[in-house]
Design a protein that fits this description.
Nucleotidyltransferase, domain 5, 485 residues, 13 helices, alpha/beta, Dna Topoisomerase Vi A Subunit, Chain: A, domain 2, 3 domains, six-stranded mixed beta sheet, single chain
Length: 485
C-alpha cells in the first residue's frame, strides 16, 4: 500500500509516493517533476503508477490551484444567482472598471454570471437582523420552473443582511436543495465572522463557489477515474491549511484557488521561518510571492474583493513570465498593467501556454528568458531540463527589436541591453523587498528554485537570509500531513 501526493501548479506538477508506514525512510520515497504542457496530467499519472508498480494506493493527496486558473481565464460554469428583489443589478454594476483613467466608454470586468440568470425574490431582513418578510413556497415554485427552463444546476444565494440573520437564506437554500439543485450560500458561519464584511464580497464568494463547482468537480472526477484501479482509500485535498476528505458534496470550491499558498504557509510556519517578525519571499518558477504571518479576510480578484479568509500573500511587481516589450521610451522594458479597483500596477504575464521562448513554444520574451540569456537557469534543476539552448538567439532578437527606436539616438550593445533590463528587474525586486521587510524591521528570508539566480545581484543592496526549500521537501511535508490525518 502506498501514499501518493500530487502537487499541481499551472505549468509544473510534482508527484511523490511512499509505502505506508515508511515516513522515516527517504530511500523508499519516489519523486518526479514534469512540465504539464508537454506531458498531460492523466497520461503521466498512469505512467508513473505503472512504472513504479504502485498498484494499491491507501491515500491520494492533491494540492491544486485549478480554481484560480479557471477564474483568471473566465472558464467557470455559469450559475444562477438569487438575491433580494430590487438588488438584481447590484453585483454587475459594481464590477471593477478595467481602466484607471477617465473614459466615456468604460469597460468592466467580464462577469461569470449572465444577467438573465439573476433572480430577485421577495424577502426582507432589516439591518438589525429582524426578518420582516419570509420566503414563500409559491415564489420558490415559480423560481424552480425558471431554473429548470434554463437548465441550471448550480445556484448561489445572497440576500441583503443575511449576515445579520441567515434564516431566509438558509430556508431558501433548503427548499431548492430538496428540488435537486446544488446550493451555495453567501453566509458561512464556520468560515467567517461575516457580520463585519460587505454584501458584495459575500455574494461574490457564493457566486464564484457555485461557478467553480462543475468544472472542478469534473477535473477531480477525471483524476479519480484515472486512479480507479489503484485507489483503495481516500482522496484528500489541502483545504485552507487543513487536510480534508475530498467529497464531491463539499461546498467550498474556493479552496482549489489558494490551497497551494495554504500548504506552503503551513510548511514555512512549521520550519519556524514564518512568524510575526519575518517575511518569506518564494521565488518560484511560476510566480514570485511574499508570505506574511497574517490572515486576510478577503481575496482581491479581477471581480473585486471576494470574502475568503486566507494566509496573506503578495505578488512581487516582477514575475517569471512577465512580458518584455517596447515601452513609451522606445526601448525594451517590463510590461505592467493597471486596474481601476487597485492603487497599484501588476505584472503583465503570459503564463506557460505557450510560455517563455526558452521553453521552446513561446515567441514573446519574458523575465525567464532574460535569466536564460544571462545563463542563470542552467543550475535550476526544476527547469534546466526543459530549456532549448538554440532559442537564445530568438530571445535576443526580440529584445533588440523592442529597443530599435532607442538605438536611433544612441547605439547599445547586446550586453548593455540585457544588463540594463536585469538591473531594472533587480532594482524593482529590491524596492519590493524593502517595503515587505518594513524597511528592515522584519527579517527577510528568500527561498524557492529561482532564489539562487537572483540572490547574487540582490545581496549588493539588501541583507537577507536564504533557505533551500525544494518541491521534494514540500511533497515530503505532504506525507507528514497524511501520517497526522
Amino acid at each position: 500500500m502506498w501514499n501518493v501526493t500530487l502537487r499541481l501548479n499551472n505549468a509544473f506538477a510534482h508527484i511523490a509516493a511512499r509505502p505506508v508506514g515508511s515516513l522515516d525512510s527517504e530511500s523508499k520515497e519516489l519523486f518526479e517533476t514534469w512540465f504539464l504542457p508537454k506531458k498531460p496530467l492523466l497520461s503521466y499519472l498512469k505512467t508513473f503508477l505503472e512504472t513504479h508498480n504502485i498498484d494499491s494506493i491507501h491515500k491520494f493527496v492533491i494540492n491544486t490551484r485549478i480554481g484560480e486558473s479557471l477564474l483568471e481565464k473566465g472558464l467557470m460554469n455559469p450559475c444562477a444567482f438569487l438575491t433580494t428583489a430590487g438588488f438584481e443589478n447590484w453585483p454587475l454594476m459594481n464590477l471593477p472598471v478595467q481602466s484607471r483613467f477617465f473614459t466615456l466608454y468604460p469597460k468592466r470586468t467580464s462577469s461569470p454570471i449572465n444577467q438573465e440568470l439573476i433572480f430577485g425574490l421577495d424577502e426582507a431582513t432589516d439591518v438589525n437582523g429582524n426578518i420582516t418578510e419570509n420566503i414563500s413556497e409559491q415564489s420558490i415554485e415559480t423560481l424552480v420552473a425558471k431554473l429548470k427552463l434554463n437548465n441550471v444546476e448550480d445556484v448561489a444565494i445572497g440576500f441583503i443582511h443575511s449576515n445579520r440573520n441567515k434564516d431566509n437564506e438558509f430556508n431558501c437554500g433548503k427548499l431548492l436543495q430538496e428540488k435537486g439543485f446544488n446550493i451555495f450560500l453567501s453566509y458561512h458561519a464556520d468560515m467567517i465572522d461575516s457580520v463585519n464584511y460587505s454584501e458584495l464580497s459575500r455574494w461574490w464568494s457564493a457566486i464564484v463557489n457555485a461557478s467553480l463547482h462543475s468544472p472542478v468537480f469534473e477535473y477531480l472526477e477525471n483524476i479519480q477515474t484515472a486512479l480507479a484501479k489503484n485507489l483503495k482509500g481516500d482522496i484528500l485535498q489541502i483545504q485552507n491549511s487543513r487536510l480534508e476528505n475530498q467529497s464531491y458534496d463539499s461546498k467550498n470550491y474556493l479552496n482549489t484557488c489558494l490551497a497551494h499558498h495554504a500548504l506552503l504557509s503551513k510548511q514555512l510556519r512549521k520550519l519556524d521561518l514564518l512568524n510575526d517578525q519575518s517575511v518569506v519571499v518564494h521565488f518560484g518558477i511560476e510566480e514570485f510571492v511574499a508570505y506574511q504571518d497574517n490572515k486576510s479576510p478577503r481575496w482581491l480578484t479581477n471581480l473585486g474583493a471576494i470574502l475568503y479568509p486566507h494566509d496573506e500573500t503578495q505578488l512581487l511587481k516582477i514575475q517569471p513570465t512577465q512580458v518584455i516589450e517596447k515601452n513609451i521610451w522606445g526601448s525594451a522594458g517590463f510590461k505592467f498593467i493597471s486596474r481601476a479597483s487597485y492603487s497599484e500596477t501588476f505584472a503583465k504575464q503570459i503564463g506557460f501556454d505557450p510560455g517563455p521562448i526558452c521553453l521552446g513554444r513561446g515567441m514573446k520574451p519574458t523575465f525567464l528568458d532574460l535569466l536564460f540569456l544571462k545563463n542563470k537557469l542552467e543550475s535550476v534543476s526544476k527547469i534546466s531540463d526543459h530549456l532549448v539552448p538554440q532559442r537564445k538567439r530568438i530571445v535576443l532578437e526580440n529584445l533588440l527589436s523592442a529597443s530599435k527606436d532607442a538605438q536611433k539616438t544612441e547605439s547599445f550593445s547586446d550586453q548593455q541591453i540585457t544588463d540594463w533590463l536585469m538591473e531594472q528587474a533587480v532594482h524593482q525586486i529590491y524596492l519590493d523587498l524593502v517595503k515587505l521587510s518594513e524597511y528592515g524591521k522584519k527579517k527577510l528570508i528568500l527561498t524557492g528554485p529561482l532564489a539562487s539566480a537572483l540572490t547574487p545581484d540582490l545581496k549588493k543592496y539588501i541583507a537577507f537570509e536564504t533557505y533551500d526549500l525544494s518541491s521534494k521537501s514540500t511533497c515530503r511535508y505532504f506525507q507528514e500531513l497524511i501520517a497526522e490525518h
